[in-house]
Amino acid sequence: MLLIEIPVAFLLGLTSVIRGWGRADEQTVAPPMDWVPILWLGGFTLGVLVIAVIFLYSAHPFAGAVQLLVAAIALSFTIAAWHGQYERAHPPQPPTRAGMPHTFSNHVTDR
After folding, report:
1. From CA 63, how far away is CA 70, in angstroms rounded?
2. Any idea what the Cα angle at residue 17 is, between residues 11 and 23, rounded to 5°?
3. Whose CA is closest to 81, among 4, 17, 6, 8?
4. Tell me, what's the pLDDT at 90?
5. In this predicted structure, what is the pLDDT of residue 99?
6. What pLDDT does 84 receive?
């Protein structure tokens, strides 16, 4: 089971990079969130957690602990992918000119 995770993780990373190449020339104002990498990484994280539970249930605590560590790392990548997609879909607003004066006047005081 552990040997299956390595090629799956490699394939997942490769497909995420290839999907990102197609978006390099997007010129839309606010593109929608791309949920595909988030769902793939979330599914991978869930699969690793299932394997960890199987190992822990079958009295292999070391292998289960390693799987839990891998699941935590995969979860951090999932959260990072979500955050990146959220930032891409919701760009920051440009600053407004509300606080800037529209006219400049010279106040000359009498001496």
Report:
1. 11
2. 140
3. 17
4. 80
5. 55
6. 87
Taking the C-alpha atoms of residue 25 and residue 90, their distance in angstroms, rounded to an integer, is 17
- Please tell me the pTM assigned to this model: 0.66
**pLDDT band for position 42 (cuts 50, 70, 90):** very high
Residue that wins the pLDDT comparison between 101 and 55: 55
Do 85 and 40 form a contact (C-beta atoms < 8 A)?
no
The total of other beta-carbon atoms located within 10 Å of residue 93's CB is: 6
DSSP 64-85: HHHHHHHHHHHHHHHHHHHHHH
Buried b or exposed e, range 43-59, using 16+ CB within 10 angstroms: ebbebbbebbeebeeee
Which pLDDT belongs to residue 11?
77
